[in-house]
Amino acid sequence: MSVTPPKFPLNDRFRGFLPVVVDVETGGFDCMRHALLEIAAAPIEYDENGLLTVGQIYSSHVIPFEGSEIDPKSLEITGIDISHPFRDAKDERAALDHIFAPIRQAAKRNNCTRAILVGHNASFDLGFLNAAVARVGHKRNPFHPFSTLDTVTLAAMAYGQTVLSKAVMAAGMDWNNDDAHSAVYDTERTAQLFCQIVNGWGKPL
Fold first, then answer.
1. Per annotation, catalytic residue among 98, 138, 144, 181
2. Which of 102, 122, 127 minimizes the C-alpha distance to 42?
3. Is 57 helix (H, G, I), strand (E, B) or coil?
4. C-alpha closest to that of 198 among 124, 118, 132
5. For the segment 122-152, what is each residue's pLDDT rounded down to a tens digit?
6. pTM recorded for the entire structure
7. Of 31, 58, 45, whose CA–CA distance to 135 is shortest?
8. Are 58 and 42 in contact (CB under 8 A)?
9. What are 164-197's pLDDT values in tens digits?
10. Is 84 among the residues known to form the active site?
11. Cys-Cys crosslink for 44: which of 19, 31, 39, 190, Cβ 3.0 to 4.6 Å?
12. How many C-alpha atoms does 69 have within 13 Å on its Cβ side?
């Protein structure tokens, strides 16, 4: 099936990279020991007016990898119930396939060479993503292995805030604490924050 190319492809905006906002929810802070429990990703593309906008969000609950650890305090924060009968979690390989396929399509659609991860404290999300890729031996990871775009830095520059909730509110957007620490919600808000800051800055000279 042919795909209509966008009116404004993104290949010339970020040095050939497609920004993709990613958020992960985990069983702790150590990407080598603690389980990846949720992942969500949203490609950033131009709208009809040439402004950055949030694309479709793709997400998956993830089955903890064999031998992984889960800190109960992390589950208290995220509210994740890994034994919930309707959680519909995928193993790491299937979860990555579910996320990576539409990202590769978005990169191709925008004439980009690969994706670059956008995150709030992006190194944390990229660390867990790369660890999962290594565990399953995934050969089609669309993301740059170490470069990121971090909304902590952008929000500090634009609003003087580094905490996601405070930065979102400083940007004039709503924040719901009851929905926070869901990979989908945090991805959506981070993506909206990224778009607002970069659109306000304008295109490079």
1. 181
2. 102
3. coil
4. 118
5. 999 999 999 999 999 999 999 999 999 999 9
6. 0.94
7. 31
8. yes
9. 999 999 999 999 999 999 999 999 999 999 999 9
10. no
11. 19
12. 9
